[in-house]
Design a protein that fits this description.
This protein is an alpha+beta fold. The protein is about 25% helix and about 30% strand. The protein is built from five helices and nine strands. The strands form two sheets. It has a six-stranded antiparallel beta sheet, with no helix packed on it. Strand 1 and strand 2 form a beta hairpin. The mean pLDDT is about 90.
């Protein structure tokens, strides 16, 4: 864990000097320097006072490098196809339990011949086109700007019922670790 580097990076980004942190926390400059260079491990109480001085939650200081912000530029997105109808899937980003993607449906294409179910929850936003979505015994038509959500353990199905391409932004939450997909 690289707590010291997290503190130093955040302090510098906020244009706060070590002296200002020490004034607010009562810690010595030598001690703060050792904390920032990872030469000493501060107590939780000390980390809490440093976090308060930096105006961040304590948990922020404890993040591992791979738990920080992840950036995927548009031209770096992983693109796959899904199902027999070759839906285009652009994988936007993911955390440990949430992934986001844009799915493009050609006219008449669907998520499969039959409704399917899996672990988790989904939220959808229709970006373009007209779709029909079915969840268990419920079904509805959606157009650009409409959104819907459901528990994915109930069989569900989505079909493009418009004349042109349909684009849907989808966020999926479940207990699986998605972070390794990106």
């Amino acid at each position: 864990m690289d707590i010291g580097s997290n503190i130093r990076t955040l302090r510098k980004r906020k244009n706060i000097t070590i002296a200002q942190i020490c004034e607010e926390t009562g810690l010595s400059q030598g001690f703060m320097s050792q904390v920032e260079t990872n030469k000493t491990s501060p107590s939780i109480a000390t980390l809490e006072s440093i976090a308060q001085a930096l105006k961040v939650p304590l948990a922020y200081l404890l993040l591992k490098k791979d738990e920080g912000m992840r950036i995927i530029r548009k031209d770096e997105r992983k693109i796959t196809t899904m199902g027999s109808q070759q839906l285009k899937v652009e994988h936007l980003s993911a955390t440990k339990n949430v992934r986001m993607m844009i799915v493009e449906f050609p006219p008449g294409a669907s998520t499969g011949d039959e409704p399917h179910a899996h672990e988790g929850e989904e939220v959808h936003v229709v970006i373009k086109g007209k779709i029909y979505a079915e969840h268990g015994s419920e079904g509805a038509e959606f157009e650009e700007g409409d959104s819907f959500s459901w528990t994915a353990c109930t069989p569900h199905y989505v079909k493009n019922i418009g004349e042109g391409w349909a684009t849907v932004l989808i966020a999926v939450y479940n207990q699986s670790d998605y972070s390794e997909l990106f």
